[in-house]
Design goal:
The chain is mainly β and 649 residues long. It contains 1 helix and 54 strands.
Length: 649
């Protein structure tokens, strides 16, 4: 009955595929905190560790090990304070609500060098659920909030904290008392504060600008919708994005503020079924914005230039926070999602690294690269569900990051694509034999272009690279080892669709494109390609909430198939016959608390196999060896050092 239900969800489409939104990602479990907290803060320190503090205790997260450890306890137990990393490396924590629901005016400093806290100068008024913004001059603007344990005490005042003296002084007041507002520093040095709730507890839409040079506030454009519990993030072009929250408009709306005009305008809406509130937003290194951590277990990516949203992975648990600051960007590009209110579970969001089949020793069995948060990598050569060997993996010069994998020279082993983070138009290829570098070469991309997919588009057994920019322009570099043999434009598509994956769906040894309709994300379309030319197309449909997470030849018929997941432990494989559906079957589930973090052909015997991770103990992994029909034919476990995550899928 389940198989019949799945089959009825499929039908051909008559829509033209379209514009691609770059990127994607997945979630993996990491260490849990020792204490559950409500109203805690999370701050990335200058040493790369993450400080979480609240309710009288504090812990540090180490990305290198993926574990939390205790550090000194704060001077005062508080909930919903502000936390700001100062230029001197210390963390300022201000206000909040303390024992007996007393609102606090006190501040304190955390010193990472000693792991201790010390009292600092008090604010001019008690306040909690305020905003705090580090100014260009090194001072901290603490604004709004409420001075009572309810909305009646909503404030329109602001304070300045001076790290040089450890004192707080009053600065200008703004129009519209508010708490649970959002703020950010603009490129012009001013501070934008918007939204929140007033003294009646009603969400508001007005915005204000603070000028540090004069210490005064002025009104600026209002949002179209009132919003509370809605964070803001500054985009690479200086504009400011907000989405969701408790709002007077549809709960899936987004808006963008333009500092040059002082006006908010509508941005693309999230899909109609998706709403976000009590979430966090993080600007990723690739210029996209991750909105995640809300109570619905949703995860969405926003591309500013194309003005599109894309679903991206499924968190295992909620990470909601009333302070909308429960996700932080780590130094390695991962995003750490902190525990939800009263919980201890944390997760990492990892941006997808484009890749083809990962086989470093040429034995036709997929291998796994494990990486920790500081760039140390180990290669596990697999033999079925067992580890055949483990070797240290080569790194690159400082400032170069691994952005892709593929067999660029056609020798049967996987090679590496690196990017210079100081000059993002510069790339370098390591040609590999196992974990040994045997050659390489450099290549350049036009400014703004990024590698999004790696696959063999011209059937020469050498992996090629798809480059895309945020304006929707795409090019294929046909590779010959460490150099570019030729290049061609990728077929264009109409607005409203985006590339969701690549695979050889018709078995001609040339990669094809899978597209998704962002306005109706149950609709997918396939372009069958010969190099950069479209030679056929067709569509499939899926049930609401399902996303394509892996593409590969599951049933060994020579054509790529698609694995779909819905985030609730339901997984289906669509076996493809060109651009048409050949069949569908479900995959065996794992025990509760395990999630798929990788897919590969680890035994070179039947269909694709699954790599699972234990979310309660992220160092534990399990391999499912599957038949061509998706049934379990073997399995085995492996363990890694704490903090290491699989880089290959």
């Amino acid at each position: 009955m389940a198989r019949l239900a799945a089959a009825t969800l499929l039908f051909a489409l008559s829509l033209a595929p379209a514009h691609a939104l770059l990127g994607g990602g997945t979630y993996v479990a990491t260490g849990s905190t020792a204490h559950a907290r409500t109203g805690a803060t999370m701050t990335v320190l200058q040493n790369g560790k993450v400080l979480v503090a609240g309710q009288g205790t504090a812990e540090l997260y180490d990305p290198a090990t993926g574990t939390w450890s205790a550090t000194g306890n704060p001077v005062v137990a508080r909930q919903y304070p502000t936390a700001t990393l100062l230029p001197n490396g210390k963390v300022l924590v201000a206000g909040g609500i303390g024992a007996g629901d007393a609102v606090l005016s006190s501040t304190e400093l955390y010193d990472p060098g000693t792991g201790t806290w010390s009292a600092s100068g008090p604010m001019t008024s008690p306040r909690y659920v305020a905003t705090a913004t580090l100014l260009a001059n090194g001072k901290v603007l603490i604004a709004g909030g409420t001075s009572t344990s309810n909305e009646a005490g909503a404030l329109n005042s602001a304070d300045l904290y001076n790290p040089a003296t450890g004192t707080v002084t009053a600065t200008g007041s703004f129009a519209g008392n508010r708490f649970f507002a959002a703020s950010t520093l603009l490129d012009n040095g001013m501070v934008l504060m918007t939204g929140g709730a007033n003294t009646a507890g009603t969400p508001i839409s007005s915005s204000n600008l603070y000028n540090p040079a004069t210490g005064t506030w002025t009104a600026t454009g209002s949002m179209a919708n009132t919003r509370v519990y809605a964070p803001v993030v500054k985009l690479p072009d200086g504009r400011v994005l907000t989405v969701g929250g408790l709002t007077s408009g549809p709960p899936n709306t987004a808006e963008v503020y333009n500092p040059a005009t002082g006006v908010w305008s509508s941005a693309a809406n999230l899909p109609a079924a998706i709403t976000v509130s009590q979430h966090s937003m993080v600007l990723l290194p690739n210029g996209q914005v991750l909105a995640a951590g809300d109570i619905q277990l949703t995860s969405q990516l926003y591309d500013p230039a194309s003005n599109m949203w894309k679903a991206s992975g499924f968190p295992e648990t909620a990470h909601n926070s009333l302070q909308t600051a429960n996700a932080v960007l780590l130094g390695n590009g991962d995003v750490l999602l902190g525990p939800a209110e009263g919980d201890v579970a944390t997760e990492l969001y990892r941006s997808t690294v484009p890749r083809t089949r990962v086989d470093f020793n040429g034995d036709l069995k997929s291998d796994i690269v494990f990486e920790n948060g500081i760039g140390t990598r180990w290669l596990y050569n697999m033999n079925g569900a067992a580890v055949q060997s483990a070797t240290a993996f080569p790194g690159a010069a400082p400032g170069w990051v691994l952005v892709g994998m593929g067999d660029f020279d056609g020798n049967g082993t996987t090679d590496l694509l690196w990017q210079n983070s100081a000059d993002t138009t510069q790339y370098w290829i390591y040609l590999m034999n196992g974990s040994t570098v045997i050659g390489g070469g450099g290549l350049n991309a036009a400014p703004g272009f990024r590698p999004t997919y790696i696959a063999d588009f011209n059937a020469d057994l050498k992996a090629d690279i798809v480059w895309e920019n945020s304006a929707g322009s795409r090019w294929i570099y046909f590779m010959n080892g460490g150099s570019v043999a030729s290049f061609a434009a990728v077929p264009t598509a109409a607005p409203g669709w985006e590339i969701a994956g690549v695979g050889d769906f018709n078995g001609d040894h040339r990669a094809d494109l899978l597209w998704v309709n962002t306005a109706a994300p149950t609709h997918y379309w396939i372009y069958l390609l010969d190099g950069a030319s479209v030679i056929g197309n067709g569509g499939v449909n899926v049930a609401p909430g399902y996303q394509p997470t892996w593409i590969g030849d599951m049933n060994r018929d020579g054509t790529s198939d698609i694995l779909w997941e819905n985030g609730t432990n339901s997984r289906w494989v669509y076996t493809m016959n060109g651009a048409a559906l050949g069949g569908a079957f479900s995959l065996p589930p794992a025990a509760p608390g395990w999630s798929i973090v990788g897919v590969g052909d680890y035994d070179n015997a039947a269909g694709l196999d699954l790599l699972w991770q234990n979310t309660a103990n992220p160092s534990q992994y399990w391999v499912y060896l599957l038949s061509t029909a998706g049934t379990l034919v073997g399995n085995g476990g492996l363990s890694v050092a704490p903090g290491y995550m699989p880089l290959t899928h």
